């Protein structure tokens, strides 16, 4: 899987509407707060970091197969 992502890197970089967003220190802090607040959920640190980034960027909809986004309150575009 890692090699597949690496091979697609140049393709992804050339999509005009796709932007790579880097995780900043405040995002990491927010991730930990989400994990603490929602300790009853099975959210991974990656989930919580994605949630923090989406909050910062004011994104309300995720394209994902992960139902955790919906559990956290985001809209989900999911192919069936």
Can you give a write-up of this model?
The chain has 80 residues and is mainly alpha-helical. The protein has one domain (25-80). 52% of the residues lie in helices and 8% in strands. Helix 2 packs across helix 3. It starts with a helix and ends with a strand. The relative contact order is 0.13. The model has no long low-confidence stretch (mean pLDDT 90).
Blueprint of the fold:
Elements: H1 2-13, H2 25-37, H3 45-56, E1 61-63, H4 68-72, E2 75-77
Parallel strand pairs: 1-2
Helix pairs in contact: 2-3
List how many beta strands DSSP finds: 2
How would you state the average pLDDT, rounded?
90
Major sheet strand order: 1-2
**Structural class, from helix and strand content?**
mainly alpha
- The number of domains: 1
Anisotropy-based shape: globular
Structure, briefly:
The chain is mostly helical and 80 residues long. The chain is built from four helices and two strands.
Offer a few descriptive terms.
52% helix, 80 residues, two-stranded parallel sheet, mainly alpha
């Amino acid at each position: 899987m890692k090699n597949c992502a690496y091979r697609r890197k140049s393709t992804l970089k050339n999509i005009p509407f796709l932007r790579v967003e880097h995780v900043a220190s405040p995002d990491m802090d927010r991730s930990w707060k989400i994990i603490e607040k929602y300790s009853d959920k099975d959210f991974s640190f990656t989930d919580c970091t994605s949630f923090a980034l989406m909050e910062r960027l004011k994104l309300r909809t995720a394209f994902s197969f992960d139902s955790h986004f919906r559990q956290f309150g985001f809209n989900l575009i999911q192919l069936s």
